[in-house]
Amino acid sequence: MPQGSEKRSAWSKVRLHVVTGKGGTGKSTLAAALALALASEGRNVLLCEVEGRQGIARMFDVDPLPYEERRIARGLRGEGDNGAGVVHALHIDPESALMEYLAMYYKLGRAGRALDRFGVIEFATTIAPGVRDVLLTGKVFEAVERNSRNKGAMRYDAVVLDAPPTGRISQFLNVSDELAGLAKVGPIKNQSDTMMTLFRSPRTAVHLVTILEEMPVQETADGIAELHRNRLPVGAVFVNLVRPRDLQAEDLAAARAGKLDATRIEQDLKQAGIDADDDLVRGLLTEAHDHAERRALEDSQRTIVGKLGIPVLELPRLAAGVDLGGLYELAADIREQGLR
Q1: 126, 167, 197, 240, 319 from 217: Cα distances, Å
Q2: Minimal CB count within 10 Å: which of 83, 242, 273, 283?
Q3: Dihedral of the CA atoms 220, 159, 193, 167 (nearest 10)?
Q4: What's the DSSP call for residue 321?
């Protein structure tokens, strides 16, 4: 990450933080922690999800979210803060987004609800995935671009989007190209073109989440390359689930080479009051070898991530799993490493 004042300026212009990653890397967890980290800087933040899993509700231990912005948490407070900001959440589903779109642009009112009963909503969002993505991203765009003319609507300093996985993120954000064969003119085409001006601007950053394994790291590298090809701005790489480094390098090398002193280990166990037989010692030596092999793999992948040319933040594996307290712990780590 940039150092000193550069840390604070690196993300100061970003209004939309898009979080993507391969399944199983903790993408949704990192999006939630990022929202809390931004709120801890005194910002009012909207955390959005678009994949229909109600992941935000589970992580924050609240009721399932409707298609409505709900306050769910406050950010951390620290020394010298002017006060913590607030995190709101929004669960965006394509059907509700289309109903809102029809009401906004075509003033359909009850007629729009009638279309829903006839299955037109499901047809439109299923048969034309490009339209579906415009509707989902369109709601996010509206939240970012709100101004004083949006009477009664909450205005946010930052919006965090828990987005689709890395393999689909460029297609999801590149709504203008996706609609090219469906709509060449009209309000939905105009809306998609306007959204692209935001998605390709310095006010947007696409962050990628990975773990230190070969497939997620390779998918992250491929995702970065595809984002660059589509002129979409890449933010940071979040390396998640990082194991603690409790052993020294020489001990790891000895464990990996099978050269740990079994007699010394047995003596240490007995001094600790543990009845150490041969089976226990052999089991511990096997565990140590496997751990050293795992660490060597992680270090090789860490080197690859470091060469991607993107700011990197590492976040720990939480021993107790992810709950609300764990999200705050990750938010504090993100804040400490300088994401602003």
Answers
A1: 31, 13, 29, 11, 23
A2: 273
A3: 20
A4: -
If you ran DSSP here, which 8-state letter would residue 333 be given?
Answer: H
Per the CB < 8 A criterion, the answer to whether 162 and 51 are in contact is yes
Read out DSSP for 10-55? HTTT--EEEEEE-TTS-HHHHHHHHHHHHHTTT--EEEEE-SSS-H
Q: What is the pLDDT of residues 89-104, one digit of tens each?
A: 999 987 777 767 666 5
Q: Token digits for 168?
A: 């689909």
pTM for the whole thing?
A: 0.85
Contact 81, 48 (CB under 8 A): no
Q: Which helix (H) or strand (E) holds 86?
A: strand 86-91
Tens digits of per-residue pLDDT, 183-237? 555 566 677 788 899 999 999 999 999 999 999 999 999 999 999 999 999 999 9
Contact between 38 and 45 (Cβ < 8 Å): yes
